[in-house]
Amino acid sequence: MTTNRKKILLPNNLARAGWDVLQGRDDIEAAEFSNTIKPEELRAILGDVVGIALSATPFSAAELDAAPKLEVVARVGVGYDAVEVPALTRRRVPLFVSGTANSVSVAENAMFLMLTLAKRGATMNALVREGRWWDKFDDVPVELWQKTVLVVGFGRIGTRTAKRCLGMEMSVLIYDPYVSADAIRAAGCEPVSDLDAALARADFVTLHCPKTKETLGIINAARLARMKRTAYLLNTARGGIIDEAALEAALKAGQIAGAGIDVFAREPAAVDHPLLKLPNVVVAPHVAGVTIESRDRMAVTTVRNILSMLDGKPIRENVINKEVLS
Fold this sequence. Notes:
By secondary structure, the protein is an alpha/beta fold. It has 2 domains: 6-101 and 292-325, Rossmann fold, CATH 3.40.50; 103-283, NAD(P)-binding Rossmann-like Domain (Rossmann fold). The chain contains 12 helices and 12 strands. The chain has helices at 16-20, 39-44, 61-65, 85-90, 103-118, 121-129, 156-167, 181-186, 195-201, 221-226, 244-253, 292-310; strands spanning 6-11, 28-33, 49-54, 72-75, 95-96, 148-152, 171-175, 190-191, 204-207, 232-235, 258-261, 281-283. Strand 9, helix 10 (221-226) and strand 10 (232-235) form a beta-alpha-beta unit. Helix 5 packs across helix 7.
């Protein structure tokens, strides 16, 4: 092994397609680390690392201080709320995300949750398995046709979810203060600037915004109270965007009809989490963006992101803190 090889760390749950990108790169030494590694254990192995890919592993100023040679951090995915971006920016270390690699998967999963709730998927499955065939008329499904869906966030995922809702012949409202009304109309959707008023119109609300100070708890008790009693709430974005205690109360009180939740404020969600006890909730283990195809795309994009920085040709569109590149 030559002394001038650059060392990068890749998580053990990175798809093989990502490792394959490194074939022929004799200048790179890639090492594997556990996706569930403890912070102190991670810090102990960062001394000679120039690049790291993160799956679920948090990365803060403490980890950055333990990595004096670090030049690039890449997320295997698009969310980065577990990464201390200001600390990276101060050190002029770029944070890359996977771009559109998993956007199709999340959009499809949002539709899956929407249809599962509308068509009473969990209930109907249980009725057949439990021999309660004729109880099927006790909780009759609803249609998506001509229903109104509110998409909160019109980025890589929200735009794809909206397309799929339009394909189901739904009326699509878009709330995103960072996207122009003209761009939303051009996509065949209706822009809305008043979130509270839009919530009152929607039969389905699906969240596709990043978790920021602005969006933390954006769906709270007051906003849940504005929704229709027949409406459904979906979150495939990030835990914490919904006030979970308020959601539990709203579901128990019948303020809304149900919820589809892929992400929780604290993960993994505890098995005794109150939302898991409610029959009108469909849950998943933060897996909306994970499919066989998207895992390969995310892995390839992640490794290419790291290499692009080390090669001096950063893929700018995938960088969160672009100011460090100037």
